[in-house]
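so my prof wants the structure for this chain in the tokens format not the other one, which i didnt know existed until like an hour ago. anyway here's the sequence
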Amino acid sequence: MDQLNAMRAFVRVAETGSFSVAARSSGTTQATISKRVAWLEERLGIKLLIRSSREQALTEAGQDYLLRCIPILEALDDAETSARCHSSAPRGLLRVTTSVDFGRLVLAPLLREFMRRYPDIRVDLMLSNYYLDLIAGGVDVAIRAGHFEDSSLVAKPLGNLPLCLVATPAYLQQYGEPQHPTELEAHECLLYSPVNNPRRWLFNENGKTLSLVVKGKFQCDNGEVILDMALAGCGLALLPYWMIHEALQRTELRLLLAQYAMPAGDLKMIYPERKHLPLKTRCFLDFMAEHTRGHPAFNHC
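here's what i got, hopefully its the right format
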């Protein structure tokens, strides 16, 4: 059996804590992963993992072996990546995840250009408004906004995502235009349900955060649906600029309380911490950084 593949199987099981998850992220079967780890243990003459019905735990020898395996495999990956830079185009399957709305409206059009530039890279785009486990899911890059803390992952800034308060001219003519955030309590607000507290909206007043509880009869986990409701005059919406900039240009929506907008949130490209990135991932990160500079969706309100 190939020792390197056995080592990779062992490292993936150790990282994910699961033979089945390791198999899915490696594109193989659980039986194959189990066979490779068992072969490695037999070759070494030691027990690397303590198996139970629910999870796998490293033995003391397994922990030491894992620490030695990781730099070996990273060095091998780096050698292959460097060689491919000189000998061939980047290739392989790239798994990317982001939110449903951003993926459809912004990322998918960029990916069409990316795949034209790199025809040997296949893309698996996973859209979800909820965070996916990158390691367990075998995800190469996640594109997300907001606060981020995970020492096992790397976050590379991509751009700013201002949130803009908007409504249709018809709605404002009927119900009046708010001049201060506290006046929102008299308005119907459209709520985005995936956030922790959809009814709590934040504004900036003289450098201080102003937190308000708004009212609204409609909430949804899809930003495009909220945008459609706002365009239909059903209420005020707090949406990212990339989603509403075209409606603003067409004057279908009007920007409200711009002077109270919270500082723009950072959009980040998040990927598993590796000393040596696969060439396909490195090409994607560079491509996204290049194509979001000057992109109309990343301008400020």
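also thought this was worth mentioning. The chain has a mean pLDDT of 86.
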